[in-house]
Write a structure and sequence with these properties.
The structure is a single chain. By secondary structure, the chain is α/β, with parallel strands linked by helices. The protein is built from 5 helices and 5 strands. The relative contact order is 0.16.
Length: 152
């Protein structure tokens, strides 16, 4: 299990990926996958530029991590993401066997861990995720708010 300092350190990397997304004109969400204390995958939102509705930061990071380890199962890995994941991304994390998801800011409209639903707790799932929310929440929220403020 990682300590608070580790969570914040890895979330800062996710925030850097969110900045990459903003620079590319995408909604600024960033994600990293960590296993045994090392980052094995990184990603940021890319659905617009890649013409891919599934190219959320979490999916991009999961794909990179799976490719890096040569296995679609990422058992015991931790996924850090700046914003509470959507239903699709939670489903992908369950399939990948992520052990822990750590997110920054809640997503009241589409968040599928605590806000809209608790998808990771649905009956019948063959894998359970642990969840920690609110890591660097203010910083994560500010990145989103600034992006949407600048677009107005």
């Amino acid at each position: 299990m990682h300590g608070v300092a580790d969570h914040e350190s890895f979330m800062r990397v996710a925030l850097a990926r969110a900045a990459d997304a903003a620079a590319a004109g995408e909604v600024p969400v960033g994600a990293v996958v960590v296993h045994d204390g090392a980052i094995i995958g990184e990603g940021f939102n890319r659905p617009i530029s890649s013409h891919d509705p599934t190219a959320h930061a979490e999916i991009v990071a999961l794909r990179a991590a799976a490719h890096a380890v040569g296995n679609y199962r990422l058992t015991g890995a931790t996924l850090y993401v700046t914003v509470e994941p959507c239903l699709m991304c939670v489903g992908a994390m369950v399939h990948a066997r992520i052990g822990l998801v750590v997110y920054g800011a809640p997503e009241p409209k589409a968040g599928a861990l605590v806000s809209m639903t608790s998808a990771h707790e649905l009956a019948g799932l063959n894998h359970r995720l642990s969840v920690i929310g609110g890591v660097l929440e203010d910083d994560c929220r500010a990145v989103l708010q600034q992006f949407f403020h600048d677009r107005r």
